[in-house]
Design brief:
Aldehyde Dehydrogenase, Chain A, domain 1, seven-stranded mixed sheet, binds nicotinamide-adenine-dinucleotide
Length: about 525
């Protein structure tokens, strides 16, 4: 294993950054200091040792950033979109050059295995490439007018300030989906990262600083406010924030949605999942096993798209159970910097306690723990053994998302419609998947009567998504769509324009009146 702590030390000095980070906000290249009273220690889930101390912003410094962002928006929106795209292309290159460094910070702070952290930074790079191309494709429609010598068209304008509230488990990718796509659309953004992963946000800003300076990007286009939920809450109530994009738990999303709706603002919500894979009697089990294990165990079960429920046809149930338990017995939690580790630590002690509570609750409800559970005694930090529990979909423990590596094994009999009913029988609707070699089953799964989720995969798992598609889920997952496809429309306002180039003044709907 590499000496990750000394590598991290080198990264801090390379970026001229102290472990005790005294700044609470950044408007691009200008950092503002906080007060020591707001200091908070950040502990790494990897070894339970502090990374350093950060300072949390107060409401006053949040509003100072908002006024910088307001004036930056006036300038940034006037820069032609392809020129904004060129800045974003260079930002993508800055992340390319610093990919490994940022990935190591993510692994230390969020506890992801290094390969996944590298994948997350790659997602930022890919979004920059996508956005650079998109900057020349923010197309509107032309529409046939019913009046002569009239032209109708739809055009898209930026919204203003996009507020970004992000979760700990994707500490930088979710920022890029919003800030980068938002920026080519002509918006400015204010990022409030998770208070559990502030260093990733700090280093992401350090990485883009040089590019912003080189391109004379106005101060206030990309902003960062390091704060806790009070800043997120202020943002959701602030009429100056045109769009609040919030990623996190459904409980948080409900609060944000109500605040934003009360002022008739726009919100974009990416909330909890409760994702399932269906294995039918026609599944290719060798393919399915890899997806199930990675989906349930990867990121220590802390992806919004993690596989929580496995819905298995009775004909193959016993075989699947035996094979999975065998694999799980071999999976040991380990340091995420160590090559070969698939199961890293949970984010903090609270997450460990929720993991334990959920297993206990499940057993009380009639669930049967087949393998796993419990904390590793050999490693410091929050390393748990991934668990499989035989359960029923109606159990409370199955219905509520636990952000931990617990896989619920659920049996179904009869036709595919029974499996789909179980799959849809939860409040959340993010990611879903089926393994089958039978094309009718596959088609039924993605038909309108099939999966009710935002993501429905055939012969691949629930976890992970390509940036080219629109990402998000239904029901209590919040209904938002981010990243690729036409998700950019969330960051713009649509304007319908009619132009009369004739000499008459015909009214719509054939109305006539004399004057
Ligand atoms: P969390 O809800 O605890 O916190 C997320 C963010 O919301 C943090 O920045 C936090 O400071 C902020 N926040 C908390 N209360 C707030 C309030 N009242 N007003 C405004 N902001 C507030 O979530 P977490 O533990 O960081 O992340 C895990 C959750 O995120 C899981 O439920 C997971 O499914 C979800 N998630 C969803 C997606 C998705 O795309 N659907 C992606 C990643 C994570």
């Amino acid at each position: 294993m590499s000496d990750y702590r000394s590598e991290i030390k080198n990264i801090f000095s390379k970026f001229n950054t102290q472990e005790e980070f005294e700044y609470t906000s950044c408007t691009g290249t200008n950092w503002a200091k906080g007060i020591p009273a707001s200091r908070r220690e950040i502990i790494s889930p990897v070894d339970n040792v502090p990374i350093g101390k950060i300072y949390l912003a107060d409401i006053k410094s949040y509003h100072q950033v908002v006024s910088k962002a307001e004036s930056a928006f006036k300038q940034w929106q006037l820069i032609p979109a392809p020129k904004r795209g060129e800045v974003i292309r260079q930002i993508g290159n800055a992340f390319r050059e610093n990919k490994e460094d940022l990935a190591k910070i993510i692994s230390l702070e969020a506890g992801k295995i290094l390969q996944e952290s590298l994948g997350e930074v790659q997602e930022v790079i890919d979004i920059c490439d996508f956005a650079a191309g998109l900057s020349r494709q923010l197309y509107g429609l032309t529409i046939q007018s019913e009046r002569s010598s009239h032209r109708m068209m739809e055009q898209w304008h930026p919204l203003g300030i996009v507020g970004i509230i992000s979760a700990f488990n994707f500490p930088v990718a979710v920022w890029s989906w919003n800030a980068i796509i938002g920026a080519v659309c002509g918006n400015v953004s204010i990022w409030k990262p998770s208070e559990k992963t502030p260093y990733t946000a700090i280093f992401a800003h350090k990485i883009i600083e040089k590019t912003l300076k080189l391109n004379n990007v106005p101060e206030g286009v990309f902003n960062l406010v390091i704060g806790d939920y009070t800043i997120g809450s202020e943002m959701s109530n602030d009429p100056k924030i045109a769009l609040v994009s919030a990623t996190g738990s459904t409980a948080m999303g409900k609060k944000v949605a109500q605040n934003v709706a009360a002022r008739l603002g726009k919100s974009l919500l990416e909330l909890s999942g409760n994702n399932a894979i269906i294995l039918t009697e026609h599944a290719n089990l060798d393919m399915a096993m890899r997806s199930v294990v990675f989906g349930a165990v990867g990121t220590c079960g802390q992806r919004c798209t993690s596989t929580r429920r496995l819905i298995v046809h009775e004909d193959i149930y016993d075989e699947v159970k035996t094979r999975l338990v065998e694999v799980y017995k071999r999976i040991k939690p380990n340091n995420p910097f160590l090559e070969g580790t698939i199961l890293g630590p949970l984010i903090d002690k609270e997450a460990v306690s929720m993991f334990n509570t959920n297993i206990l609750q499940s057993i009380q409800e009639g669930g049967r723990l087949l393998v796993g559970g419990g904390l590793s005694k050999e490693l410091p930090g929050n390393y748990v053994y991934a668990a499989i529990i035989e359960a029923h979909n109606s159990h409370e423990s199955v219905q509520n998302e636990t952000f931990a590596p617990i896989l619920y094994l659920l049996r179904y009999d009869g036709g595919i419609e029974n499996a789909i009913e179980i799959q849809n029988g939860v409040k959340q609707g993010l990611s879903s998947s089926i393994f089958t070699e039978n094309f009718k089953q596959a088609e039924l799964f993605i038909a309108s009567t099939g999966s009710d989720c935002g993501i429905a995969n055939v012969n691949l798992g629930t976890s992970g998504a390509e940036i080219g598609g629109a990402f998000g889920g239904e029901k209590e997952t919040g209904g938002g769509r981010e990243s690729g496809s036409d998700a950019w429309k969330n960051y713009m306002r649509r304007q319908t324009c009619t132009i009369n180039y004739g000499n008459e003044m015909p009214l719509a709907q054939g109305i006539t009146f004399e004057m």
